[in-house]
Specification:
Elements lengths: L3 H4 L38 H14 L20 H7 L2 H4 L11 H18 L3 E3 L5 H18 L6 E5 L5 H8 L3 E5 L9 H7 L4 E7 L11 H10 L3 E6 L18 E4 L1 H4 L14 E3 L11 E5 L2 E5 L16 H36 L17 E4 L1 H7 L3 H10 L6 E2 L8 E4 L7 H20 L1 H5 L12 H6 L12
Parallel strand pairs: 2-3, 2-4, 4-5, 5-6
Antiparallel strand pairs: 1-7, 6-7, 8-9, 10-12, 11-12
Helix pairs in contact: 3-11, 5-11, 6-7, 11-14
The protein binds pyridoxal-5'-phosphate (PLP).
Length: 483
């Protein structure tokens, strides 16, 4: 497919502004800021622009096109009505610097969303400011640091189980702590003996992904949070996967002190949907004073932004966070209500267990002591050993059959991993079709392994050297084009 620059023909325009007589740009912009040459932009007609971007969009894969079982990402269907609501002009035309008096409705929505997230998590206070899960994690770790610093010693380590999400150790490092790995046991859960060995007064916190990246619920979580509290450390929940237990349990009841939510997973914004996300963070009472500013307060019958929190860690995002994502989450939560949210978690768990059962004879299943939560992990070691076919080959072949591939080679503790999250919004028919396709691919691996090793065949591009493409990008345009 041609890139837009290659379609360019001198003189073509989508729209022409009328000439302004005797216009001299230098009167308006100092000469040192002016370009020596005109910017090199594609010259194309409006029809060409429209067709170009439509053609690109058609090549894209998305949840509205088909099944997207990308583990740890919750690529579920999000009701269109919530997009409509976020697009209401009263919301989209708000300027972030508008006086508080003129945006009472927006502030009320934010405050009520905070309250709903408090209710869902059991936490005492929520900040909507962080812009994603990882940003929420960093906010949480900065709160941990401030809490311990004010008590006299910031401490040194944050414990991170080896089944945690990869952003966890990164957030720990960014906040100036040293991440220490806690091992999983043979069931895929946090090893309590290893935790005990590493717990001491130098530990500031533990960050727990629950359900962990194997899709398993940490059944000994209450014991774990108790042990961590005994050394004066805090317990952080990576709650990105809240669709696994929303409406069933509250993180606070399990002993968590801090939790982040991924609105752009659980609450009606697609993850990685090309737009912004939102990763609010909830805390218990004793940590509330450290939350980012400004905070929304309700005083004398009015909602206001308050900066009057002297212990706050400060700001973690420009203005107040990504507001339009909050609208979708708010609408989604109110539409479903308590019972609906609970149903989300029940269906997510049911779908994952159904699919896990359907394909259990196709792959190795290293962690099957417990039912899974919203996702599960299998290993393609059997295909590699028997036919020399790797998990990457299976993932690529799935594309030929019109499915998005699951997450692969993650979590790192499972060799040749396939991490599958069907989500609550898929039908039995879709799950059956996916399972049948995997069955077909495993058969192909047995009969014609080379077929898989060269897949995909039906996609716009075949196999790319992704590392090279990232390290050495070569934008393509005609040789005689100069910028
Ligand atoms: C998605 C995810 C994150 C990171 O969230 P982002 O919004 O992508 O930064 C963290 N932890 C877990 C368990 C996740 O699934």
């Amino acid at each position: 497919m041609e890139i837009l620059l290659e379609k360019s023909k001198e003189g073509k325009r989508a729209f022409k502004f009328p000439e302004i007589p005797d216009f001299d740009i230098k009167k308006y912009i100092p000469e040192k800021y002016l370009r020596e040459k005109d910017a090199f932009l594609p010259s194309v007609s409006e029809t060409e622009i429209t067709r170009h971007f439509n053609a690109l969009a058609e090549r894209n894969y998305h949840v509205d096109k088909g099944f997207y079982p990308l583990g740890s990402c919750t690529m579920k269907y999000n009701p269109k009505i919530n997009e409509e609501l976020a697009r209401l002009p009263g919301f989209t035309n708000l300027h972030p610097l508008i006086p508080e008096k003129l945006c009472q409705g927006a502030l009320k929505l934010m405050k009520e969303l905070e309250n709903l997230l408090c209710e869902i998590s059991g936490m005492d206070a929520v900040s909507l400011q962080p812009s994603a899960g990882a940003n929420g994690e960093l906010t949480g770790m900065l709160i941990v640091r401030k809490y311990h610093t004010e008590k006299g010693n910031p401490r040194k380590y944050v414990l991170v189980p080896d089944s945690a999400h990869g952003t966890n150790p990164a957030s720990v490092t960014l906040s100036g702590y040293i991440a220490k790995t806690i091992k999983s046991n043979e069931k895929g859960l946090i090893s309590i003996p290893d935790l005990k060995k590493n717990l001491n007064e130098e530990v500031a916190a533990i960050m727990i992904t629950n359900p962990n990246t194997l899709g398993l619920f940490e059944v000994e979580i209450c014991e774990i949070t108790k042990l961590v509290h005994e050394v004066g450390a805090l317990v952080y929940l990576d709650g990105a996967n809240l669709n696994a237990f929303v409406g069933i349990i509250k993180p606070r009841d399990l002993g968590f002190d801090i939790v982040h939510f991924n609105l752009h997973k659980t609450f009606s914004t697609p993850h990685g949907g090309g737009g912004p996300g939102s990763g609010p963070i909830g805390v218990v009472k004793q940590l509330e004073k450290y939350l980012p500013i400004p905070r929304i307060v309700f005083e004398n019958g009015e909602y206001k932004f308050s900066y009057d929190f002297p212990h706050s860690i400060g700001k973690v995002h420009s203005f107040y966070g990504n507001f339009l994502v909050m609208i979708k989450a708010y609408a989604y939560i109110l539409t479903l209500g308590y019972d609906g949210l609970r149903q989300v978690a029940c269906d997510a768990i049911l779908n994952a267990n159904y699919l896990r059962e359907k394909i259990k004879d196709l792959f190795e299943n290293p962690y099957r002591d417990f039912p899974c939560m919203h996702e599960f992990v299998v290993s393609g070691e059997n295909l590699k050993r028997k036919y020399g076919v790797r998990t990457l080959d299976v993932a690529k072949r799935l594309l030929d059959y019109g499915f998005h591939a699951p997450t692969i080679y993650f979590p790192l503790i499972v060799p040749e991993a396939l991490m599958i999250e069907p989500t609550e919004t898929e039908s039995k028919e879709t799950l059956d079709a996916f399972a049948e396709t995997l069955r077909k691919i495993v058969k192909e691996a047995e009969q014609n392994p080379d077929l898989l090793k060269n897949a995909p065949y039906n996609t716009p591009v075949r196999r790319l050297d992704e590392t090279l493409a990232n390290r050495n990008p070569v934008p393509r345009w005609k040789k005689n084009m100069t910028i």
